[in-house]
Amino acid sequence: MKVTLCLTHRCNLACSYCYAPEKPDGMTLKTAEKALALALSQVEKDEEIQIHFQGGEPLLCFPLIQDIVGLTHHLKASRFAFQLTTNGTLLSQEMLDFFAEEDIALRISFDGPARIHNRNRFYPSGIGSYALVLANLRRAISQVNVTVDSVFGPETLSALPETLEALENEGVNNICFHLNYIGNWPIEAEHWFEPVYRQIANRYIKAYREGRELEINLIDHKITLMLKGGYPCGDPCMKAWAVAPDGKIYPCDQLIERGTALCLGNVWTGMKVEPHVLRLHQIGCANERCGTCSLNHYCKNQIPCANYLMMGDVEVMSPIFCASEKAAIHAAQHVFSTLFQENNQTFINHLAHHLEFETDNLDELKSEECMV
Ligand code: SF4
Ligand code: SF4
Question: I need a surface site. Which of 52, 64, 268, 346 has the fewest CB within 10 A?
Fold first, then answer.
């Protein structure tokens, strides 16, 4: 189970694509304690609970993070794992020491070279945050487990290969590219994804040919899905929810404060059971062409946040996101068939250890239509 704790809506940056509501609120320790208790009541014994600290900027609440992690030391009924998403501007050595000691994985938002990063990620004064984030990213990489979250929009999609190269040069080997759902995507952008994702796939292949392990969400998530036969029960967001600072529960952090119809309940009284709320947990896809699409099992067409933010309906997939999904699946197929046919041992070890897949089954899967 994954629980996102949105500790505050406050932030020291003013990114152009920020979706956090402008509210000066902050979560209390009591609210977080209630959220942990609710999560514990919903998991099997010994099932892992992933706690994801989010904001706004969660490092504005560092003492609260320390208290919440301290609380979990007394809750031995389940195993907790932690990650924290930060804009990277407020990281201190004290924080890094704490994250290293508590095994908290860091997700640092960094969009690439200065002209790309500063285009969208700046202070309220308009000054870009690139220089400080890069300095802190370099410090963090050597001390804790770091993933870089990189957001792209229509104006920066074509620069993704350049961003990937810059991140590889910094020694980052775990990268998540995120499409800006609220970007102003023109309809012709449907045709832009395939060539760009193909270049990402080719850089991924190059890294493995050089014996370097690289993890990129666009490729790795799709390969994992293919190896596992698709999304379980058709729902990519099962067993995940997010808690707003006031204790209200939503399907994910991107849907916080998007209206009562999307609210699943609160940490004080639990999840609601009204039909519209249950529907949010068994979300479907209303796009007719998806029913006959051969990529349906590997596609995030049922992801409520993307659908809601791009189309205003949790069940309707945007043509832009459809194009991105198709291109990601094709890129992953290209990577898998290329590296597997080359018997690339770095890649096969990556599948076995990082993606936790039994390599004994790979020969069988290679003959499956989806893989080649
Ligand atoms: S760092 Fe995150 S929360 Fe802060 S302004 Fe940027 S997108 Fe919004
Ligand atoms: S790739 Fe497009 S058409 Fe196919 S299932 Fe996904 S959203 Fe539907």
Answer: 268
